Amino acid sequence: MNFEKQDARLGLLVLVALGLFLGLVAYKNAGAVTERSYPLVVHLDQMEGLAPGTDVQLKGYRVGSVLRVDMRQEGKDYHFLARIAVREDIKLWRGTRANLSPKGVGSVMLDLRLPELAERTVLLTAGDEIPGDSGVSIAGVLERADHLMASLQAGVEGLRTRIERRGLSAADAAVAGCHSAGIPILGQGKPRVGGSRGPQHERGGPGPGLAG
What we know:
The protein is an alpha/beta fold.
């Protein structure tokens, strides 16, 4: 009986925790679920990692997302149509372009570029198509980063070599100055004054006055 009661309590706790988790998820996504939007189509020559769920931003602010991406054939060439959903309260005008830009490392976003103020006369409606620009590709960004790292590494190595050379030159000059001044150098013994001693002195033998 005790095991059955413990199992029942454990199951109840699991259900309560699951209910709280689902409630939290529903609360956070309530705005996205109830958010009203209108569809637009972006014409792109390259997709560069564009996928459903990719952010659509306007001046750095998220105003929608990508619904799906389709590939179409025109004659002997191919292009992509990205269907996006834009918030209903965001007004866009004819002449708006979508730039495919890198976002962080390994991801992209669609950045909406508005036309000039004088050209904002006709509003876009649901289903309109706007041109897209591929912008800077992720491969290009990574390649530039590799070149930058290589240049920085080469500069650091060159600076280290110059510092080592200057350090050795300064050390050689210091050693030469110590020798000329008669200052002993650690590991090189003391300078000898008055000529070299004889073998008896070096062996610690008796001096001349004590010879028999």
